[in-house]
Each structure stands twice: as structure tokens, then as C-alpha cells.
Amino acid sequence: xxxxxxxSLGKKVVMACTGLxxxxxxxxxxxxxxLLFAGDGGEAFNEASHSMVHSIIIRIVxxxxxxxxxxxxxxxxxxTGENAKARPVKYARxxxxxxxxxxxxxxxxTGSVILFFIxxxxxxxxxxxxxxxxxxxxGHETLSxxxxxxxxxPWYALLYFVSICFLAFHLxxxxxxxxxxxxxxxxxxxxILKIAATGLALALWLGFAAFPxxxxxxxxxxxxxxxxxx
Length: 230
What we know:
The chain has 230 residues and is mainly alpha-helical. 74% of the residues lie in helices and 0% in strands. The protein has one domain: Up-down Bundle (3 helical TM bundles of succinate and fumarate reductases). The longest helix has 31 residues.
């Protein structure tokens, strides 16, 4: 097992599995975030977030999530370096843009942007909510209020939106690559896999991109998005 995991194929399998696990987290995270649009002052979102914090199952999943992120990044760095060493010089002279997209050739770049956003995102929300207690039931403002204020900031809203765009392109290629690595590379089902990957990436992009756009715009026009239904 150790020999397999240390091999190039083993690292690709680990990267594929952690990537798919992170996609599942994104789907769940989007569902929870959509509660911000309930118009109830953020109560549903706050309650859902509070419940997850006190759920032992979620806490265990959270540990696996952080491990998955770290492993995914480590394997990505290793495989990127390995591929760069193995690639012949003459390869760079070919018109690779004719056979592959920029995003498929630069997963490392898109992944780096996403990683930077994750760090900033954790600093803005995870730290004050889960560590310092500045935000939450015992803090000076609720988590939903903190989200609304952060997304009203033009720089953070822009970073959020750009990162989600990069995430969508990253997922579109990464989703297919993960299944190819795990053996689902039958040409018969390739069109279905391609449609599924594009559909998933588009759905997650539409869902997550809505937050910086709607919260930023609503703040500029003076509309209280958290309390629209009250």
C-alpha cells in the first residue's frame, strides 16, 4: 500500500479522491449558504451553522476536510513538479492550445488562486466564528451579518467572484480528470462525463457567484438582503 501511495499513480488517485470529497463539501456548503437568501434576518443560516458546529459527525468530517485540502495541495505540487521534469523541451514548441484549454494546462495556477481564497475566507469567517468567538451567538454580531458586511466590501466581493470563476474552471477539468484516474475513461461515456462536469461546474458557479454579486449590489442600493421577507 505504501509503495502504491508513493508512486505517481497512487498520488493521482489520492488527488482524485480528495478532489471528489471536496466537491461534495462544496455542494453541502452551497446548500447552507443559500439559507442566507431566506429573508429571515439570517436566522436559518445562523441556526444551521450553529448546529453543525455542535454536531460530532460534522466535526469529524471537518477534520477529514482539512486533511483532504492539505493532501490535495501537496499532491498537486508534487505532480506538477514531476510533470514539468518529465516534459521534453520540444513539447513547449507545439501549439498545445489547439488540443487543450488554458485551464486544463494550468490547474496549478487556478488551484493556487483558490487556495489563497480559502486562506482569506477562513481568516474572515472561521477564525472569528470558531476560534476567537468575535462572531456568533456570544459575539458582537451574527455570522450572517458578518457575511453580509464582508461581501459589501468591494475588494472582498471581487476576490470572491474571481475565485469562484477560477473554481468553476478548475472543477470542470478536475472532475473529469478524477474519474479518468479512477478508471472511468471509457470513450463511450466520455460525452456524458463531460456534460456532467460542465453542468456541475456551472451550477456551483451560479450558486456561489450569486453571493458576492447580490450582497454587494444590495448594499449599494440600500436594500437589506438578509431581511427582505420580514
